[in-house]
Specification:
Blueprint: H1 6-23, H2 27-33, H3 38-46, H4 65-78, H5 84-98, H6 101-113, E1 118-121, E2 137-141, E3 144-155, E4 162-168, E5 180-186, E6 192-197, E7 208-219, E8 223-224, H7 230-266, E9 268-269, E10 272-273, H8 278-306, H9 312-337, H10 347-354, H11 365-375
Parallel strand pairs: 1-4
Antiparallel strand pairs: 2-3, 3-7, 4-5, 5-8, 6-7, 9-10
Length: 378
């Protein structure tokens, strides 16, 4: 990809070494515990690997988006379920874009240093893809909002110090989306309850939680942006959120394919490497082609996003197709490993579990197709 400079490549080599030293050796341990230790966030922050795009006055480096791409790519390649992309490139931008100067000065430096871990609470038990159907309310009482409701499937929910809560400040608004607002809730606020860590099929070290708000009184100063404008903010940020998701899917597919090729060259059956059997060779050729197509598509989207272009249609296509492609690659790579692929000692077992979520979070494949169809005029 021609848009990387030598500085980018130097940064990639440095971050790759960091991952190999500070993250890779501990992935299995974190998977067992079901969470990432707090100190890794601090180490990431100390090295400038959190929110690198932030202005220097808020603790960032003022770097371009490609630095975020590199970080997300290397973590995905390592198979590390550390929600850096969620924290740095999906949630923090809400504060940077819609926060007041006071809010930015209060929260962003901690986001960059690792002292503040972020989560965003959208999904509810009966409201997933249909955000307009959320039931969590925030009623204004003097200089506070009183929150009541429940959220679920919240990544970083247990470890979060700061949660952006999507809620209804006007439940009777018509159309419904005009009643949605974003309110920042700090850990320790009375009535904010981190209920339980959810047990998931994969992404075990990325803690995921149920959150409750029981007459939770939040300062009105914690309203992010304008009241009633929350839905518009969410729509504005979904392009980058889905692009970050696509990066994870693509790099996961690349890593699984690379491992499978190496395995197929060294594992022997009936006196020859299994990659020499035509069926296996053809299957690898098919996967390699799809992975290459995905990479070409992704690189063009990254360039267009950096150029400020509207890529909502194309990123929806990529979120659907590359996410599904990564799942196909996971299936065939595990099959190629045979019985060993089913063993936890081989990374393919973890990748197989983890990548399944890629067609669900940040908008399901079905929702992506609905967006594409609507953008095409249907």
């Amino acid at each position: 990809m021609g848009i990387y400079t030598e500085e980018h490549e130097v940064f990639r080599r440095a971050f790759k070494k960091f991952v190999e030293k500070e993250i890779g050796p501990y992935i299995d341990e974190w998977e067992e515990k079901g969470e990432v230790p707090r100190e890794i966030w601090k180490k990431l922050g100390e090295q400038g690997y959190l929110c690198p795009w932030l202005e220097e006055k808020y603790g960032g480096s003022g770097a371009d988006f490609l630095y975020s791409v590199i970080i997300n790519e290397e973590l995905a390649w390592a198979g590390a379920s550390v929600a850096v992309g969620l924290h740095s490139d999906i949630i923090a931008p809400y504060i940077a874009s819609y926060g007041t100067e006071e809010q930015k000065e209060k929260w962003l430096p901690g986001c960059a240093s690792g002292d503040i871990v972020l989560a965003i609470a959208m999904t509810e038990p009966n409201a997933g893809s249909d955000l307009q159907a959320i039931k969590t309310t925030a009623v204004k009482e003097g200089d506070h909002y009183v929150l009541n409701g429940q959220k679920t499937f919240i990544s970083n929910g247990i470890s979060a110090d700061l949660v952006i809560v999507i809620c209804k400040t006007d439940p009777k608004a018509e159309p419904r989306y005009k009643g949605i607002s974003l309110i920042v809730v700090e850990d320790g606020t009375p009535g904010f309850i981190k209920s339980r860590k959810l047990k998931k099929m994969g992404l075990h070290s990325m803690d995921t939680a149920e959150l409750f708000f029981d007459h939770c009184r939040v300062p009105a100063a914690n309203l992010l942006g304008a009241e009633g404008a929350g839905f518009f903010y969410l729509m504005e940020k979904l392009q980058q959120e889905r692009l970050i998701s696509v990066i994870g899917s693509q790099c996961g597919a690349e890593r699984m394919l690379a491992d499978a090729i190496q395995y197929a060259k060294t594992r022997e059956a009936f006196g020859k490497p299994i990659g020499k059997f035509q069926h296996n060779a053809f299957k690898i050729a098919e996967m390699a082609t799809e992975v290459e197509i995905g990479r070409t598509f992704l690189n063009s989207l990254i360039a267009d996003h950096i150029a400020g272009k509207d890529i909502v249609t194309k990123v929806s296509m990529a979120k659907w197709w590359i996410g599904e492609m990564a799942n196909r690659v996971a299936y065939h790579c595990l099959q190629l490993h045979g019985g060993y692929g089913y063993m936890e000692e081989y990374p393919i077992a973890r990748f197989y579990r983890d990548v399944r979520a890629h067609t669900i979070y940040a908008g399901t494949s079905e929702i992506m197709k609905m967006i594409i169809a609507k953008r095409l005029g249907f």
